Amino acid sequence: MRHRTMRHSLTVGLFIAFSMGTASAQDTIKVGFVIPMTGQLAAVGKQVSAGARLYMQEHGDTVAGKKIELIIKDDSGVPDVAKRVAQELLVNDKVRFLGGGLTPSAFAMAPLATESKVPEVVVISGTSAVTERSPYIVRVSFTLGQSSGILGDWAVKNGSKKTVIIQSDWAPGAEATAVFTDRFTKGGGQILDTIKVPLANPDFAPFLQRARDLAPDTLFVFVPAGQAGTFAKQFVERGLDKTGIKLIGPGDITDDDDLPHMGDQMIGTVTALNYSASHNSPKNKAYVAAFKAANGGMRPNFISLGGYDGMHVIYEALAKTGGSADADKLIAAMTSLKWESPRGPMSIDPETRDVVQNIYIRKVEKVGGELYNTEFATFEAVKDPIKEAKKAAH
Ligand code: PHB
Q: pTM above the 0.85 mark?
């Protein structure tokens, strides 16, 4: 009798230990973001991680009976590091989603998403081809073509005739230039020169001087968010604000993180982008207030929405699959999503797995003593123009 009881309690004990061990592994879904938390574009990593964390703070950490655990890994913007760190996340942490960061890193991680059949949700990169590198990539951020094409059309319709381009010399910069040039010249405008500035430790002064010497009526500039403050400072130091040359560009150059620290000389700058912190919707007002409260008063920029909406597609996809982490099911679920983000209505194109969203034309204004990008025109449901052009050519 005594013997039986002992054996029984041993079995029960083992059962409890066993089920506890497996339950926590099976019921947790890990998400691994590989983003720049240090290095030159650390400001980008800070925004995107804050956006993701805010989403979890608002929506809890359980979906379809699974506990969601977000792991943030720093790649310092170096693609070889991104690849190694992503591999560790897959092998050691057994993440079921990767968050892809800057363009070079998102590219470096793409083969891992394919080999391991783990979806890579791109939360930062704005380079068109990224989504073509793996059938398991979905983008929630933006493409440079989306904003630059809209702005090319707008500029030529609003009096710009001769433009000089200053472009940060990497893939998203090349795409901003290519799409802007295409649309601006089709509308009858002329590009006087395209000046490329190194991505690492840029000194814009000599390039600004060269641009000024060419006497354009318009200067189109792309630098990544995180370099906007440096650019604006040198633009003013070189006296470019007093030349009458119109400064325009993708909204990365007046991003909401750096804009509050820029001078009033930036007032009037016209840009195109998917998000402004002053976007007038109840959803965005709540987002900005909650983001500031959670981040010591920091204003959210467009990059933060990659983190916020990245978590949204992960949560919604898991809800649709009933908690299954099967990559094919998750990709099918993600590409059928349509939702309202703080940036406005958005969806994922089921054909390309790329983001479809409104692009707004905005101008820098002083509102309540602070600089903001005030939206004054909306282009609805804009797709990546580079992919659209490829489709049309077929
Ligand atoms: C990118 O990684 O493609 C990227 C990052 C920051 C930007 C724009 C593009 O502001």
A: yes
